[in-house]
Amino acid sequence: MANWTDSKKIYDPIDYRTTQIDFIDTMTAEHPIFENYYDPANVEVHGKEGVYVGGQMSEDSPLMWADEFMFNKWPKSEDLEKKLPLVEYGLFGDRSSKDFGRMAFDEPDILKKHLDSKINIVYEKWKRTVGQVILHDLCNSDNYKTSAIKELDKDYFKIDTDNKKIAENQAKAVNIVAEIETTAYAMINYSKDFNKDEKEAVVKGLQDLTLIMDTSVNTFLNTYGYSQVFNAGYIDLKMKIGKVIITKTPNIKNDDLKPLPGHKITGKGTAKYTTGDPHIGDWRILLHDKNFYKINDVINVPRAEGVFLETAFYLSSLKNLIGKWYWAVQGCITFCNAAAWKCKTT
After folding, report:
1. Using alpha carbons only, what angle is made at residue 151 by residues 163 and 282, rounded to the nearest 5 degrees?
2. DSSP state of 148
């Protein structure tokens, strides 16, 4: 994760460089990864870091009936905090061949459509990039209890039409659904089995769980699992888990370049994973409390939910540059329950 440490650069006012355009609901992302974890209400921002505040169950609760409930007998609970690092995403922008100033006078209706199209492109690039960083963080063994990560065979989710393999794959499909469901039900009971901090945690219910599956897993389950039973609703995880996201999850080998935006690769092989890197693995399934990952804006320059038209900063006489700078505090909350399934890479 790329951390931003130059606080002076962050807090320098730059409103004078821009002409502001405000939009409503721009933070409601079409991209499910961003939408699922963006949570400004529960993340406090303090300078160059964020803090998520959670809590643990009270010990010896509930108190049974007594003549007097003295203050020294009240149950004790633990307040938990998780610091979130600051990430600089840089500038998301687009350059138009149109002179916005001239179009505003000559063709205002066309200008509006042109701006809407360009601004949509800027936000799509931004949300996609943020989503990739979130996935990268989620696929990090350092955020999970060791026993909560299950390793599967390299070709576990390989589609095979060989008649001899069909029955075997059907059994594998049912088995992985059962494993996920068993883990989900285990998370709705108090335990220390599914969080890195080994705190006694619990998920309120299945609707408070998020399940992320690689597209290959979804195809495998559709082919060998759901399509093979009379009533697929009995085993369809989408009917049980609160949020199910189907996306391409990372397949990180030992010699892969790091897929993090903001990392500059100056030469071949200068930013490779090394043996023992916690990201290495063919990540396929992630199951966790909806609070397991949090992201909040630090500065949405120049104002919240703003896209700007740039003029002076680039010393350009044409008003044709659209952009958005973006910083955020984000990261995994390791006292919340989480589990993952990885396939071997070799």
Report:
1. 85
2. G
Q: How far apart are CA 327 and CA 340, in angstroms?
A: 28
At 199, list the tokens: 């705190």
CA dist 32 and 48 (Å) reads: 27
The residue with greater pLDDT, 131 or 150, is 150
- Please state, in angstroms and rounded to a whole number, the distance separating the CA atoms of residues 70 and 59: 16
Measured CA to CA, the distance from residue 287 to residue 184 in angstroms comes to 8
pLDDT digits (tens, 9 = 90+) for 238-271: 888 999 999 999 888 776 665 554 444 444 444 4
DSSP 64: P
Burial 150-179 (b: 16+ CB within 10 A, else e): bebeeebbeeeeeeeeeeebbebbbebbeb
C-alpha 248/C-alpha 214 separation (Å) is: 5
Total-model pTM: 0.78
Residue 342 neighbours by CB distance under 10 Å: 22
Cβ-based neighbour number of residue 213 at 10 Å: 26
Contact 228, 234 (CB under 8 A): no
User: Shortest CA distance to 313 belongs to which of 4, 112, 63, 19?
Assistant: 19
Helix (H) or strand (E) holding 300: none
